[in-house]
Structures are given as C-alpha cells and as structure tokens.
Design goal:
Elements: H1 3-9, H2 25-28, H3 34-37, H4 42-61, H5 71-116, H6 132-153, H7 155-163, H8 173-218, H9 223-266
C-alpha cells in the first residue's frame, strides 16, 4: 500500500474534497466564537468581500470627482460606461438605457467579482457555483422585467404583448400561447440562473480535478505517476487562464440577456 493510500485509509486526508472544503469555520473560530464561525463559509466570505470591494472602490473613486478624471475615477467611469454604452443604450436607446444603466452595470460588476473568486488561491470557488446566488440574481432581473412591462403597458396589454404571438392565426393560439408563457415568463429566470451556475460550477470542478489530481499524483510512490503530475498542474494553469475568459463572458451574457428582457418589456410588441 502506498503512503498516500495509507493516509487515506487512516482518514487524515482531505481528498477527495467534501463539504468541509467550503467551510471556513476552523480558521474563523480562532477569531470569533465557534457558533458564529459556522455561519461563515468560503462562499459567504466571497459574497461579503465582493459587496465590500464594490462599495469601497466606488466611494473611493468618487470621493472628490473632477472634470478631468483621476486614474481611479477614470477606472470607475470606464467600468460603468462599458455596460451603459454596449448594453443599456445599444439595446434600449439613450432615453431608457440611461435609466437602467446603473442596475445593469452593478449587476455586471457584481457577477464579475463573484466569479473572480474561482481563481483566487485560498478561496478557489465562485459563490455563483452555488445555485442560490445565480437564482436570486435571476429572480431580481425577472422582477424588474415584469415590473417594467406592467408599468409601461399595464398588466393586460403587457400579457398580450408577451404571450400572444403577433401575426399568428387564431386557431393556433391554444398551442402557441402556452409555449410563449413557458418561454417568456417561466423559463427566463430559470435559464438565466442555470447558465451562470452551470458554467461556474463546471469550471470549479475542472480546476479541482487537475490541481488536486496533481498533488495526489505527486505523492504517489510510482515515479511514472509522479511525472504525470506535471501534466496535471500544467492543465490546471491552462484551465485557470481559460476560466478568466469564462468569468468575464458569463457576467456579460447574464447582463446582456437581462438588458434584452427589459428592452422586450418596453417594446410595443415582440
């Protein structure tokens, strides 16, 4: 039996990872009480850090705004302006786009930072890899989508625009209307949440497999298996770089789809 197998048999290893991988209780209990410590996990830590970083950064950037922006002010304005121009105004026009730009920009930056924890050593998991957080973001976007449509058109007209396909013959309405209800009202928050969750959860698992697999192979008594650990670590680095692209892409897609849904609620017909 190899040394690593003996350790596994004795129950002294954290491989394969279990629920303890997400728990900061042992580290946090040294600073606070044990009961309070168990309320915090790696995921909740990432969420609170994300909120704190965004609040502190924008307060710091706009503490003394100037006509000719400083570097920090330029960075904050660029982050906001990117979503305002490429999503809000492009989809909804200047009048309506400017109204929703603050929400869309906040949503984008919040998701980017939440996703970024997936590649930070010591945390290495995005809170969006837990279905609860993408679900809440999707529900919030869905509430805005419904509220905007009802406010713009009234409940009856908005439902007619949303679930009655224009130009379709009357005899096909019994088939098309349930499909439109399912697609435009029920499934939109579900697909928003699942897309973000699935991509971040899959990325976390892939990095976990290559990095922890590399350590396990490195601890093997077989020289050939130890050599394969180099390949595993190399793939872990490559997938981390790929994950950086996914982090930005998924945040942008979530924000873009939210903007498209809001624009659809504002439009006179689909």
């Amino acid at each position: 039996m190899t040394d690593s197998a003996i350790v596994l048999a004795e129950g002294e290893s954290h491989f394969p990872p279990g629920i303890h991988s997400f728990d900061f209780a042992d580290w946090f209990s040294g600073l606070t009480g044990t009961a309070l410590a168990h309320m915090f996990t790696t995921i909740t830590l990432g969420v609170w850090l994300t909120v704190a970083i965004l609040i502190v950064f924008f307060l710091w950037a706009y503490r003394k705004p100037q006509i000719v922006p400083t570097k920090k002010q330029w960075l904050a304005e660029s982050a906001y302006g990117f979503i305002r121009n490429t999503v809000a105004i492009d989809l909804m026009g200047k009048k309506d786009g400017v109204k929703f730009a603050p929400y869309l920009a906040t949503l984008f930056l919040f998701i980017v930072l939440m996703n970024f924890w997936a590649v930070v050593p010591g945390i290495q998991i995005s809170p969006n890899a837990h279905i609860a957080f993408p679900a809440m973001l999707a529900i919030l976007s869905w509430i805005i989508y419904v509220w905007v449509g009802i406010k713009q058109h009234g409940l009856v007209k908005w439902l007619k625009i949303t679930v009655v396909p224009p130009g379709a013959p009357l005899f096909i309405y019994p088939l098309l209307i349930p499909i439109e209800i399912l697609q435009n009202i029920i499934l939109r928050p579900v697909t928003l949440a699942l897309r973000l969750f699935a991509n971040m959860f899959a990325g976390h698992l892939i990095l976990l497999v290559f990095i922890l697999g590399g350590f396990e192979m490195l601890n093997s008594s077989n020289f050939f298996v130890q050599g394969l650990s180099i390949f595993s670590f190399g793939m872990g680095i490559a997938m981390t770089l790929f994950e950086l692209i996914v982090i930005l892409l998924q945040a942008y897609v979530f924000t873009l789809l939210t903007g498209m849904y809001i624009q659809g609620s504002l439009a006179e017909e689909h």
